[in-house]
């Protein structure tokens, strides 16, 4: 019996997000309640060049680590470029949008609290 | 005003862990309560070749993503090799130890719930 869940991230199904307003975005639910994670979930996003998540807000935070590629994070008035090895914390209720401005697939981890 | 915390991970201080029983282990607290993260914290561990964390257990889980290097995760009876791009979930109260069995620094993200 395995004492840990252990997979390569590419073994986890690449899914279309349920949310509206995305372009060329897919994600892998690497660790979630299915694995027994009750407090927070680890997802890996893959966004193709020119793709983006919606400009939106919600009442939970994001903890993000950029694995590969380049992009910008925007709110309604500002934007900031980011690249590999960058860390971003988006607080609850902050407007935010991730855009792939590079020439390669943008890959990042985005962790969220598990909702009741 | 910045709408997100945004740093390169190498800008975050590399610290010695408080815990006993570690060898050649340092960590960076990338996102923690200081940044406003109330639910879970993102740390980046750097373990030199031959280094290890203690074989221990505790009442919180780990969500781990291997960024660079190779190693094994052990409990009292088993061990499993891991490498770059691997994902590990260590449930609460599972015995575990991370060992760098490679020739380069092992770097991984390890997220934990924030304790009360």
Describe the structure.
Two copies of one chain form a homodimer. Chain A has a five-stranded antiparallel sheet, with no helix packed on it. Chain A has a single domain, classed as Jelly Rolls (Sandwich). The model of chain A has no long low-confidence stretch (mean pLDDT 95). In chain A, strand 2 and strand 3 form a beta hairpin. Chain A has strands spanning 5-8, 23-31, 40-52, 62-68, 71-74, 79-82, 86-90, 97-100, 106-113. Chain A is globular and about 45 Å long. Chain A is an all-beta fold and 116 residues long. At the A-B interface, strand 1, strand 4, strand 7 and strand 9 of A face strand 1, strand 4, strand 7 and strand 9 of B. Strand 7 (86-90) of chain A pairs antiparallel with strand 1 of chain B.
Structural class designation of chain A: mainly beta
Oligomer: homodimer
- Give the radius of gyration of chain A: 14 Å
The 3D shape of chain A can be described as globular
In short:
By secondary structure, the first copy, chain A, is mainly beta. Chain A has strands at residues 5-8, 23-31, 40-52, 62-68, 71-74, 79-82, 86-90, 97-100, 106-113.
Structural key phrases:
homodimer; 116 residues; mainly beta; Jelly Rolls; five-stranded antiparallel sheet; three-stranded antiparallel sheet; 9 strands; globular
Give the SSE layout.
The structure is a homodimer of 116-residue chains.
Chain A: E1 5-8, E2 23-31, E3 40-52, E4 62-68, E5 71-74, E6 79-82, E7 86-90, E8 97-100, E9 106-113
Antiparallel strand pairs in A: 2-3, 3-9, 4-7, 4-9, 5-6, 5-8
């Amino acid at each position: 019996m395995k004492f840990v869940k252990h997979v390569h991230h590419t073994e986890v199904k690449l899914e279309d997000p349920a949310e509206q307003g995305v372009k060329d975005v897919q994600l892998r639910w690497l660790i979630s309640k299915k694995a027994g994670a009750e407090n927070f979930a680890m997802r890996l996003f893959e966004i193709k060049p020119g793709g983006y998540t919606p400009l939106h807000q919600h009442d939970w935070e994001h903890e993000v680590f950029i694995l590969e590629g380049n992009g910008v994070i925007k709110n309604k008035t500002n934007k900031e470029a980011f690249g590999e090895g960058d860390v971003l914390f988006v607080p609850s209720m902050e407007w935010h949008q991730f855009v792939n401005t590079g020439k390669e697939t943008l890959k990042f981890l985005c962790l969220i609290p598990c909702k009741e």
